[in-house]
Amino acid sequence: MKSVFIVADNILSPIGSTSAENFDKLTQNISGIKEHPAGGKSAVPFYASLFKDDQAFLTAPGIYTKFEQLLIASITDALKDSGVDSTDPKTVLIISTTKGNISMLETDADSPGLSHRIALPTSANLVAERFGFVNKPLIVSHACISGLMAMITGMRMIQSGQYDNAVVVGGDVITRFVLSGFQSFQAISAQPCKPFDLNRDGINLGEGAATVILSSNQQKAENIQLAGGSVSNDANHISGPSKTGEELFDAINSALKSAGVESEAIDFISAHGTATVYNDEMEAKAINLARMQDIPVNSLKGYYGHTLGASGLIEAIIATHSLKHNIIIPTRGFHELGVTQPLNVAKEIQTIPLTACLKTASGFGGCNAAIVLRKS
């Protein structure tokens, strides 16, 4: 089976427009989360990591929506020094998102034309045409595991020999529609989020886009390998996670097996860590079932908020840069353990030799995903 490597990446977020800028900001404990006043997105003030209203992503936006501009800007930066040709028949485009252009429901009159324009395949085709991809683009919209599931899909397509390269991009935009949905669940914290903390009370949302370029061609010795991955579903509740963590454990266990590594080989865990009471408790149970509770674990939601379809990609990219720089980013907002199971939550930045990382994500509908990243 072919090995798969991350040969280029990009993070476009409110704290930086490249992966290097983003990683540097995290090492300085800089977060994009701040309080936003009541207005167009919410009837009450809220905390989130959002782009400025007048921020430009393309010099000539043309027909593209904000969502599509984010994807295009992220792909452009990732591709420029990747050595991968988007017009190569052995290259495929995979797009990860949860909401796409859902904001058009708020701004445009209902019509057959709107139904077509808002559809994810329309955005995917526009982005693919922009870069000259010759293959039909794939869309992964699978709640909050979309980013990791898109990476696993790309990995498997390369391993099968169908493609040599996969450009995997994800993004989401926060709108009143999106925010009100989480507010209706009473899942939004009234303060900066506190993953795994005793006083955690909910998430912050965030905007962003990210791209990884996967390839069977290891171009540089420092390229990180996407060694394995797996998904599962607990079928517990439409919006509530498993009460036991057994199904995320199943995804972790299968990911480790597919990567050919034991849990002892993992140096740190990049968790989903949304800072909701139920998600963090479930994750702690799953990590304990895997007997990985002593391994340093972090959550990046305190820097980016929950970026939905981009979150798995953004956090996987930070994990690859952690491996390259031998730095574990601390869990911003965490002070005192607030889950019932023991967990080694990273509170301070750590500089130690790193070889392999486990990245997890979970989402509405009971879905779970896990991938293993390691130095080659």
DSSP summary: helix tally: 11
The amount of helix comes to 25-40%
Which structural class do you get from the secondary structure elements?
alpha/beta
Helix/strand order, N-terminal first: EHEEHEHHHEHEHEEEHEHEHHEEEE
Q: CATH class of the largest domain, please? A: Alpha Beta
Estimate what percentage of residues fall within beta strands: 15-25%
Counting structural domains, the number is 2
Q: Which oligomeric state applies?
A: single chain
Biggest sheet overview: 10 strands, mixed
Low-confidence regions: none
* Biggest sheet strand line-up: 5-4-6-8-1-9-15-14-10-11
Mean pLDDT: 97
Task: State the shape.
Answer: globular
CATH architecture of the largest domain: 3-Layer(aba) Sandwich
- Can you identify the CATH superfamily of the largest domain? Thiolase/Chalcone synthase
Distance between the first and last residues' Cα: 15 Å
* Spatial extent as radius of gyration: 19 Å
The tally of beta strands, per DSSP, is: 15
- What fold name goes in the CATH topology slot of the largest domain? Peroxisomal Thiolase, Chain A, domain 1
Give the key terms:
11 helices; Peroxisomal Thiolase, Chain A, domain 1; 2 domains; ten-stranded mixed sheet; 376 residues; 31% helix; three-stranded mixed sheet; 15 strands; alpha/beta
